[in-house]
Design a protein that fits this description.
The chain is built from 2 helices and 22 strands. It is elongated, with a radius of gyration of 23 Å. By secondary structure, the chain is mainly beta. The strands form 6 sheets. It has a 5-stranded mixed β-sheet with strand order 2-4-11-6-9. A 5-stranded mixed β-sheet has the order 3-5-10-7-8, with no helix packed on it.
Length: 280
Protein backbone atom coordinates (compact mmCIF):
# COMPACT_ATOMS: atom_id res chain seq x y z
CA UNK A 1 0.00 0.00 0.00
CA UNK A 2 1.30 3.46 -0.89
CA UNK A 3 1.16 5.92 1.99
CA UNK A 4 2.15 9.53 2.53
CA UNK A 5 2.56 11.53 5.72
CA UNK A 6 2.26 15.26 6.13
CA UNK A 7 5.59 16.82 6.97
CA UNK A 8 6.15 19.89 9.09
CA UNK A 9 7.64 23.02 7.50
CA UNK A 10 10.37 24.58 9.61
CA UNK A 11 10.88 28.33 9.41
CA UNK A 12 13.01 30.79 11.35
CA UNK A 13 12.80 30.75 15.13
CA UNK A 14 12.89 34.53 15.54
CA UNK A 15 15.80 35.36 13.20
CA UNK A 16 18.26 32.70 14.27
CA UNK A 17 18.07 29.56 12.13
CA UNK A 18 21.38 28.25 10.77
CA UNK A 19 20.70 27.16 7.19
CA UNK A 20 22.04 23.87 5.90
CA UNK A 21 23.20 23.02 2.40
CA UNK A 22 24.55 19.92 0.71
CA UNK A 23 28.11 20.61 1.85
CA UNK A 24 27.03 20.86 5.50
CA UNK A 25 25.25 17.51 5.42
CA UNK A 26 28.27 15.69 4.01
CA UNK A 27 30.92 17.14 6.37
CA UNK A 28 32.49 14.28 8.38
CA UNK A 29 29.83 11.85 7.12
CA UNK A 30 30.56 8.54 5.44
CA UNK A 31 29.64 9.03 1.79
CA UNK A 32 28.64 6.46 -0.82
CA UNK A 33 28.75 7.45 -4.51
CA UNK A 34 26.63 5.46 -6.94
CA UNK A 35 28.20 3.47 -9.75
CA UNK A 36 26.60 1.97 -12.82
CA UNK A 37 25.02 -0.38 -13.55
CA UNK A 38 22.37 0.07 -10.85
CA UNK A 39 19.30 0.53 -13.06
CA UNK A 40 17.29 -2.45 -11.81
CA UNK A 41 16.25 -4.10 -8.58
CA UNK A 42 18.62 -6.98 -9.39
CA UNK A 43 21.61 -4.62 -9.72
CA UNK A 44 20.78 -2.52 -6.64
CA UNK A 45 23.84 -1.29 -4.74
CA UNK A 46 24.12 -2.14 -1.04
CA UNK A 47 24.15 0.92 1.26
CA UNK A 48 23.98 1.51 5.02
CA UNK A 49 21.14 3.06 7.00
CA UNK A 50 21.77 6.49 8.50
CA UNK A 51 22.43 6.25 12.24
CA UNK A 52 23.01 9.83 13.42
CA UNK A 53 22.48 11.11 16.96
CA UNK A 54 22.17 14.59 18.44
CA UNK A 55 25.45 13.99 20.29
CA UNK A 56 27.28 13.31 16.99
CA UNK A 57 26.02 16.60 15.59
CA UNK A 58 27.01 18.68 18.61
CA UNK A 59 30.48 17.12 18.72
CA UNK A 60 30.91 17.79 15.00
CA UNK A 61 31.75 14.18 14.23
CA UNK A 62 28.59 13.07 12.38
CA UNK A 63 30.00 9.59 12.89
CA UNK A 64 26.64 7.90 12.34
CA UNK A 65 25.80 9.82 9.17
CA UNK A 66 25.69 7.88 5.90
CA UNK A 67 25.09 9.93 2.76
CA UNK A 68 24.33 8.57 -0.71
CA UNK A 69 25.16 10.73 -3.73
CA UNK A 70 24.54 10.16 -7.43
CA UNK A 71 23.14 11.36 -10.74
CA UNK A 72 19.78 10.46 -12.24
CA UNK A 73 17.36 11.37 -15.01
CA UNK A 74 13.93 10.23 -16.23
CA UNK A 75 15.58 7.41 -18.21
CA UNK A 76 18.26 6.51 -15.62
CA UNK A 77 16.79 5.10 -12.40
CA UNK A 78 19.20 4.27 -9.58
CA UNK A 79 18.51 1.36 -7.21
CA UNK A 80 19.84 0.72 -3.68
CA UNK A 81 19.37 -1.98 -1.06
CA UNK A 82 19.43 -1.15 2.67
CA UNK A 83 18.67 -2.86 5.99
CA UNK A 84 16.09 -0.85 7.98
CA UNK A 85 14.82 -1.21 11.52
CA UNK A 86 11.14 -1.64 12.31
CA UNK A 87 9.20 1.56 13.04
CA UNK A 88 9.35 5.14 11.79
CA UNK A 89 12.27 5.85 9.46
CA UNK A 90 13.23 8.94 7.46
CA UNK A 91 14.25 9.64 3.89
CA UNK A 92 16.22 12.92 4.04
CA UNK A 93 16.78 14.44 0.60
CA UNK A 94 18.85 17.24 -0.92
CA UNK A 95 20.36 18.21 -4.26
CA UNK A 96 18.20 18.57 -7.37
CA UNK A 97 14.57 17.44 -7.54
CA UNK A 98 13.84 13.71 -7.91
CA UNK A 99 11.22 11.02 -7.30
CA UNK A 100 11.89 8.19 -4.89
CA UNK A 101 10.23 4.87 -4.09
CA UNK A 102 10.80 2.57 -1.10
CA UNK A 103 9.95 -1.06 -1.78
CA UNK A 104 10.06 -4.33 0.13
CA UNK A 105 11.75 -7.50 -1.15
CA UNK A 106 8.55 -8.46 -2.98
CA UNK A 107 8.80 -5.20 -4.98
CA UNK A 108 5.72 -3.79 -3.24
CA UNK A 109 5.88 0.00 -2.89
CA UNK A 110 5.48 0.95 0.77
CA UNK A 111 6.18 4.66 0.31
CA UNK A 112 6.79 7.12 -2.52
CA UNK A 113 7.16 10.87 -2.86
CA UNK A 114 8.85 13.62 -4.87
CA UNK A 115 11.58 15.82 -3.45
CA UNK A 116 11.37 19.38 -4.77
CA UNK A 117 14.39 21.57 -4.21
CA UNK A 118 13.50 24.73 -2.27
CA UNK A 119 15.72 27.71 -3.05
CA UNK A 120 19.49 27.55 -2.62
CA UNK A 121 19.13 25.15 0.31
CA UNK A 122 16.33 22.77 1.06
CA UNK A 123 16.93 19.46 2.84
CA UNK A 124 13.62 17.69 3.35
CA UNK A 125 12.83 14.65 5.51
CA UNK A 126 9.96 12.27 4.72
CA UNK A 127 8.70 9.96 7.47
CA UNK A 128 7.51 6.45 6.63
CA UNK A 129 6.76 3.27 8.58
CA UNK A 130 8.66 0.00 8.27
CA UNK A 131 6.39 -2.92 9.30
CA UNK A 132 9.29 -5.23 10.19
CA UNK A 133 13.07 -5.07 10.18
CA UNK A 134 14.72 -6.33 7.03
CA UNK A 135 16.12 -5.40 3.64
CA UNK A 136 14.35 -2.77 1.56
CA UNK A 137 15.00 -1.09 -1.76
CA UNK A 138 15.23 2.57 -2.72
CA UNK A 139 14.61 3.64 -6.31
CA UNK A 140 15.67 7.16 -7.34
CA UNK A 141 14.40 8.63 -10.62
CA UNK A 142 14.95 12.09 -12.07
CA UNK A 143 12.02 14.27 -13.09
CA UNK A 144 13.74 15.78 -16.16
CA UNK A 145 15.49 14.21 -19.14
CA UNK A 146 18.94 15.63 -18.33
CA UNK A 147 21.10 14.08 -15.62
CA UNK A 148 20.93 15.87 -12.24
CA UNK A 149 22.73 15.30 -8.95
CA UNK A 150 20.94 14.05 -5.84
CA UNK A 151 21.74 13.28 -2.22
CA UNK A 152 19.86 11.31 0.42
CA UNK A 153 20.11 9.62 3.81
CA UNK A 154 17.71 6.87 4.84
CA UNK A 155 17.15 5.55 8.37
CA UNK A 156 17.38 7.81 11.40
CA UNK A 157 16.79 11.57 11.01
CA UNK A 158 19.66 13.97 10.55
CA UNK A 159 20.18 16.67 13.21
CA UNK A 160 20.71 20.42 12.97
CA UNK A 161 21.27 23.25 15.46
CA UNK A 162 19.64 26.62 15.98
CA UNK A 163 18.75 29.07 18.78
CA UNK A 164 15.85 31.21 19.97
CA UNK A 165 15.37 34.14 22.35
CA UNK A 166 12.62 33.78 24.97
CA UNK A 167 11.51 37.05 26.62
CA UNK A 168 10.61 37.28 30.29
CA UNK A 169 6.85 36.77 30.70
CA UNK A 170 6.71 39.43 33.42
CA UNK A 171 8.70 41.89 31.30
CA UNK A 172 10.98 43.22 34.04
CA UNK A 173 12.33 41.82 37.29
CA UNK A 174 12.67 43.99 40.39
CA UNK A 175 15.04 42.96 43.17
CA UNK A 176 14.28 44.39 46.62
CA UNK A 177 16.17 44.17 49.89
CA UNK A 178 13.30 42.38 51.60
CA UNK A 179 13.37 39.41 49.22
CA UNK A 180 16.46 37.20 48.91
CA UNK A 181 15.26 35.73 45.59
CA UNK A 182 12.92 36.75 42.81
CA UNK A 183 11.46 34.41 40.19
CA UNK A 184 10.49 34.99 36.56
CA UNK A 185 9.00 32.83 33.83
CA UNK A 186 10.13 32.29 30.22
CA UNK A 187 7.56 30.57 28.01
CA UNK A 188 9.28 28.41 25.38
CA UNK A 189 5.88 27.15 24.27
CA UNK A 190 5.11 30.62 22.99
CA UNK A 191 7.91 30.60 20.41
CA UNK A 192 6.47 30.33 16.91
CA UNK A 193 7.78 27.80 14.38
CA UNK A 194 9.90 25.95 16.93
CA UNK A 195 11.15 22.69 15.37
CA UNK A 196 9.57 19.50 16.66
CA UNK A 197 11.81 17.69 19.13
CA UNK A 198 14.07 20.69 19.88
CA UNK A 199 16.31 19.92 22.89
CA UNK A 200 18.47 22.50 24.69
CA UNK A 201 22.23 21.97 24.69
CA UNK A 202 23.16 25.42 26.07
CA UNK A 203 21.38 28.42 27.66
CA UNK A 204 22.35 32.01 28.39
CA UNK A 205 20.61 34.78 30.34
CA UNK A 206 21.18 38.29 29.00
CA UNK A 207 19.93 41.76 29.95
CA UNK A 208 21.49 41.45 33.42
CA UNK A 209 24.42 43.54 34.58
CA UNK A 210 27.23 41.88 36.52
CA UNK A 211 26.10 43.58 39.74
CA UNK A 212 22.31 43.05 39.48
CA UNK A 213 22.19 39.53 41.00
CA UNK A 214 24.60 37.14 42.65
CA UNK A 215 23.13 33.88 41.28
CA UNK A 216 20.67 32.48 38.76
CA UNK A 217 19.07 29.05 38.96
CA UNK A 218 17.05 27.85 35.97
CA UNK A 219 14.42 25.11 35.94
CA UNK A 220 12.86 23.37 32.96
CA UNK A 221 9.31 22.81 34.21
CA UNK A 222 8.53 20.06 31.70
CA UNK A 223 11.33 17.87 33.04
CA UNK A 224 11.37 19.22 36.60
CA UNK A 225 15.15 19.60 36.43
CA UNK A 226 17.13 22.67 37.50
CA UNK A 227 20.73 23.88 37.40
CA UNK A 228 22.75 26.99 38.23
CA UNK A 229 24.10 29.30 35.55
CA UNK A 230 27.78 30.17 35.69
CA UNK A 231 28.37 33.42 37.59
CA UNK A 232 28.80 36.62 35.57
CA UNK A 233 28.51 34.91 32.18
CA UNK A 234 25.08 33.53 33.23
CA UNK A 235 25.48 30.64 30.84
CA UNK A 236 25.34 26.83 31.08
CA UNK A 237 26.63 24.41 28.45
CA UNK A 238 26.60 20.61 27.96
CA UNK A 239 22.90 20.15 28.72
CA UNK A 240 22.08 17.52 26.06
CA UNK A 241 22.00 14.56 28.44
CA UNK A 242 19.28 16.27 30.50
CA UNK A 243 16.90 16.08 27.51
CA UNK A 244 15.35 19.49 28.21
CA UNK A 245 12.64 20.43 25.67
CA UNK A 246 12.77 24.04 24.52
CA UNK A 247 8.99 24.03 24.30
CA UNK A 248 8.51 24.37 28.07
CA UNK A 249 8.10 26.95 30.80
CA UNK A 250 11.51 27.89 32.15
CA UNK A 251 11.57 29.32 35.68
CA UNK A 252 14.51 31.50 36.70
CA UNK A 253 15.30 32.23 40.35
CA UNK A 254 17.47 35.33 40.73
CA UNK A 255 19.53 35.64 43.90
CA UNK A 256 19.64 39.05 45.61
CA UNK A 257 22.71 41.26 45.35
CA UNK A 258 21.26 44.76 45.40
CA UNK A 259 18.01 46.59 44.74
CA UNK A 260 17.70 46.83 40.96
CA UNK A 261 15.40 46.41 37.97
CA UNK A 262 16.34 44.61 34.77
CA UNK A 263 14.75 42.99 31.69
CA UNK A 264 16.16 39.49 31.23
CA UNK A 265 16.06 37.45 28.02
CA UNK A 266 16.72 33.71 27.91
CA UNK A 267 18.59 32.44 24.85
CA UNK A 268 18.28 28.69 24.27
CA UNK A 269 20.67 26.95 21.88
CA UNK A 270 19.10 23.71 20.70
CA UNK A 271 19.57 20.64 18.53
CA UNK A 272 16.67 19.06 16.64
CA UNK A 273 15.97 16.15 14.28
CA UNK A 274 14.81 17.17 10.81
CA UNK A 275 11.25 15.90 10.48
CA UNK A 276 10.15 18.02 7.53
CA UNK A 277 11.58 20.88 5.51
CA UNK A 278 14.17 23.55 6.10
CA UNK A 279 13.34 26.56 3.95
CA UNK A 280 15.34 29.67 3.29
Amino acid sequence: MITKKTVKVLTACLVSVFMIGVADITVHAETFRETEPNDTMETAEMIKANNETAKDTLEGTNSGAYVVEGYTSKSDPNWYKVYLREGTQYMTCNGEAFEFYILNENADIIYQDTYLKRGAFGPTAYAFDIPEAGYYYVRITGIVSSSKDYLFLIGSPTYFTSKCNIPCSEGTVTMTAGNRTQTALFNGGGISNLPEGAIAYSVKMSGIGTTNVDSIRLENNHRGLSFSLDAYTWRKDSLTSMNLPVESIWTASFGYKKASTFTPVLTVYYVYPLHGNVVQ
